[in-house]
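Anyone up for a design puzzle?
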């Protein structure tokens, strides 16, 4: 996207420039004091050299901004995802009518780009620069390490006068805010089993549900029209829908936002992974994180990239609550909304801290439906006993529970939930 050439120039004297100016002033003043015209002339000449360098730099920058009014920046992919490399291309192009006279300026330019440390892993950006007769192109890679919104740009142009007395760092163009989605673990191959288990619990049957293997690996002779191409591309192996006409039971993911950066990012990543994988099996899903009532709607009747993007966009700005009271209130709102959906047949997956008595009372009606699974966080080893006690109470209310640390492998946690066929 082309952006206007907003330019901010910062010029500074180099050590050579400082020495030239200081010597000029001292020699000139000494010449006046000693009545030595030659010394005065030398001092004035040295001072004027610095002034001429400043005029040269100012004129050159003005000429550049007139000939190169736009910077075009392309970021791929967009939004970015934690742990998935991206790339940035910045093109500084001359005006169409002036392209023939721009070669000299382009050849002298040194350019780099600024990017937030969260997008580069704290490393400096190292760019490949390509020069043509009418443009300069800067290309570099990004390695996002943190969810959120972070700035890229502006471009920095580095220049100096021919005598090396002045340096200029000129910011060119504007910064762009780039969204970074949380890390997503592909659980698609087993997400359908969770929905199928919900049907078996309600029906009291032990026969496989039509949703139990909503996606499975391709076998020779399968109808290619049943291939789920989006999931196949992500997993690197062909997956097919086992029953195109299976019911599409909706699901709700309750995310209790914790305190602490590590716990927060793990929880958001787990919720996003579960939600996206349920979407990819063709089931509608919603993410509840304590927002206002009615704010979270079910996304995607048949999955799709649009619904996936909408779900992940909801996670970009999630932050820890301001206090324990705020966290409790958020969980109560989410539980109330999920309880209404559970009575209508929804499957519920909750990622929560050990709940209080009040929160447990709000969660109990969801467990009574037999379609509720919970991941209880134990942020520290000393918290595990408390979490185990809370898990026992939730199981008595009908939930299937597992206790995890916030560094546990998300795929393993998910598989543990799926193996819990019997209630404690």
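Challenge accepted. My sequence:
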């Amino acid at each position: 996207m082309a952006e206007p050439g907003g330019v901010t120039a910062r010029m500074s004297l180099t050590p050579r420039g400082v020495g030239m100016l200081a010597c000029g002033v001292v020699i000139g003043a000494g010449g006046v004091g000693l009545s030595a015209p030659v010394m005065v002339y030398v001092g004035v000449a040295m001072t004027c050299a610095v002034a001429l360098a400043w005029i040269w730099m100012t004129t050159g920058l003005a000429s550049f901004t007139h000939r190169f009014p736009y910077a075009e920046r392309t970021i791929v992919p967009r939004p970015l995802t934690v742990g998935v490399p991206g790339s940035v291309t910045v093109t500084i192009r001359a005006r169409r009518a002036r392209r023939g006279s721009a070669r000299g300026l382009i050849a002298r330019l040194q350019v780099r780009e600024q990017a937030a440390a969260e997008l580069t892993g704290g490393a400096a950006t190292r760019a490949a620069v390509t020069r043509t007769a009418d443009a300069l192109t800067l290309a570099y890679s990004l390695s996002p390490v943190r969810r959120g919104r972070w700035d890229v740009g502006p471009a920095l142009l580095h220049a100096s006068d021919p005598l090396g007395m002045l340096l200029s760092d000129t910011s060119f163009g504007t910064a762009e805010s780039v969204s970074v989605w949380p890390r997503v673990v592909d659980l698609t191959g087993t997400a359908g089993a969770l929905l199928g288990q919900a049907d078996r619990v309600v029906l009291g049957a032990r026969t496989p549900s039509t949703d139990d293997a909503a996606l499975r690996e391709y076998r020779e002779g399968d109808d290619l029209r049943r291939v789920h191409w989006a999931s196949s591309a992500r997993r690197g192996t062909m997956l097919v829908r086992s029953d195109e006409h299976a019911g599409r039971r909706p699901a709700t993911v309750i995310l209790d936002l914790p305190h602490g950066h590590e716990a927060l990012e793990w929880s958001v990543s787990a919720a996003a992974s579960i939600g996206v994988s349920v979407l990819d099996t063709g089931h509608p899903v919603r993410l509840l994180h304590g927002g206002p009532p009615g704010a979270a709607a079910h996304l995607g009747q048949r999955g799709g990239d649009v619904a996936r993007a909408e779900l992940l966009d909801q996670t970009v700005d999630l932050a820890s609550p301001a206090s324990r009271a705020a966290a409790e209130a958020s969980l109560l709102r989410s539980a109330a909304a999920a309880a209404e959906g559970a009575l209508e047949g929804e499957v519920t997956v909750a990622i929560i801290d050990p709940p209080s008595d009040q929160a447990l009372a709000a969660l109990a009606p969801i467990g009574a439906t037999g379609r509720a699974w919970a991941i209880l966080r134990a942020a520290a080893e000393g918290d595990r006993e408390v979490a185990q006690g809370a898990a026992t109470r939730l199981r008595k209310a009908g939930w299937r529970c597992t206790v995890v640390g916030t560094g546990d492998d998300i795929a393993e946690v998910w598989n543990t939930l799926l193996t819990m066929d019997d209630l404690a």
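A detail worth pointing out: The chain has a mean pLDDT of 81.
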